[in-house]
Design brief:
This protein has helices at 4-13, 15-42, 51-74, 88-94, 101-104, 112-140, 147-210, 214-233. It is an all-alpha fold and 262 residues long.
Length: 262
C-alpha cells in the first residue's frame, strides 16, 4: 500500500533517489538564503528594524541547505544538478510571484510594497514548508540519520511562518490590509499550481531512478492532481488567513547553528 512514509522510505533507501531529493532541497534552501540576505540589505530606511529578522530568515535557509548537503556527505554522495522542472523557487519567480532576482541584484532600496510582497510570498511558501516538514517529522523524527535534521528544520519553518503572520498583521493594522489580502491570494493561487507541477516533475524523475511501474506512477500522479483539485477549490484559503501566532518575535534572536544538528 502506498503511503507518504513508504514512499519517502523508498527514496531514502536508494542512493540515487536520495541524492536527487537532497540536491533539490539544498538548492531551494540556498536560493531562499540568498533572497532573504539581499532583502535584508535592501530594506528601506523606515523599516530597518525588520532587517535583522529577514537576515535571520536567510541564515536559517542557508543552514538548511548545508544540512541537506551534510546528509549527502554522510553517505559519500555528491549533489547533482537540479532539473529545471523541479526548481520550485525559479518557477514561482517565472510566474511573477515574490521579488524577482534581477530586482534584488540591484543596490536599490526596496519600497514598502516590496516588503509586503516579500512577506506575503513568504507566508504562502512557508505554510507549504511547515506542512511538509511536519509530515517528515511525523514519520522520521526518530530516524537515526534524518531525525535531528528534520526536527531542526521543522522548528525553523514553524518560526518563519509565525514571523510572517506577525509582521503582516502589523502592516494590516497600519492600513495595508487590502493590499496584503490581494497579494496573498495571487501568491496562493500561483503556488498551488507550481507545487502541483513540481510534485509531478519530482515524482517523474524519482520514478525513472527507482524504475517504478507505470501503474504506480499513474497512482502517484493521480494523487497529486487530487491534492491540487482540493487546494484549488478550498485548500488555498489556509494560505491567506492571518492570525496572531503563539510564537511571538520568532526570529528575534540569532540563528541556531547547524552544529546542534550534527
Amino acid at each position: 500500500m502506498l503511503s507518504a512514509k513508504s514512499l519517502f522510505q523508498e527514496i531514502l533507501d536508494n542512493d540515487e533517489s536520495f541524492r536527487l531529493f537532497c540536491s533539490i532541497a539544498a538548492d531551494g534552501e540556498s536560493q531562499g538564503g540568498w533572497e532573504n540576505g539581499r532583502i535584508a540589505a535592501l530594506v528601506p530606511p523606515g523599516l530597518r528594524e525588520l532587517a535583522p529578522k529577514v537576515a535571520r530568515h536567510g541564515a536559517d535557509e542557508d543552514k538548511h541547505g548545508r544540512i541537506f548537503n551534510a546528509l549527502l556527505k554522510q553517505r559519500g554522495l555528491q549533489p547533482v544538478a537540479v532539473p529545471y522542472d523541479t526548481d520550485y523557487t525559479l518557477l514561482l519567480e517565472r510566474r511573477g510571484i515574490g521579488l524577482a532576482h534581477d530586482r534584488l541584484s540591484r543596490d536599490e532600496p526596496l519600497t514598502e510594497r516590496d516588503v509586503i510582497v516579500y512577506l506575503a510570498h513568504s507566508r504562502v511558501t512557508e505554510q507549504r514548508a511547515s506542512e511538509q516538514m511536519r509530515l517528515l517529522l511525523k514519520h522520521f523524527a526518530g530516524h537515526p540519520v534524518l531525525g535531528r535534521a528534520v526536527k531542526m528544520i521543522s522548528r525553523d519553518e514553524d518560526n518563519h511562518l509565525a514571523y510572517c503572520h506577525e509582521e503582516l498583521l502589523l502592516f494590516a493594522r497600519a492600513g495595508h490590509g487590502r493590499t496584503i489580502q490581494s497579494v496573498l491570494r495571487e501568491c496562493a493561487q500561483a503556488e498551488i499550481r507550481v507545487y502541483r507541477d513540481v510534485s509531478l516533475a519530482v515524482m517523474s524523475h524519482m520514478g525513472e531512478v527507482l524504475r517504478w511501474p507505470r501503474a504506480k506512477a499513474a497512482v502517484l500522479a493521480a494523487g497529486i492532481h487530487a491534492v491540487y483539485a482540493g487546494e484549488r477549490l478550498v485548500g488555498w484559503r489556509r494560505m491567506v488567513s492571518l492570525e496572531q501566532p503563539a510564537r511571538r518575535n520568532a526570529l528575534g534572536g540569532p540563528a541556531v547553528p547547524e552544529s546542534e544538528y550534527a
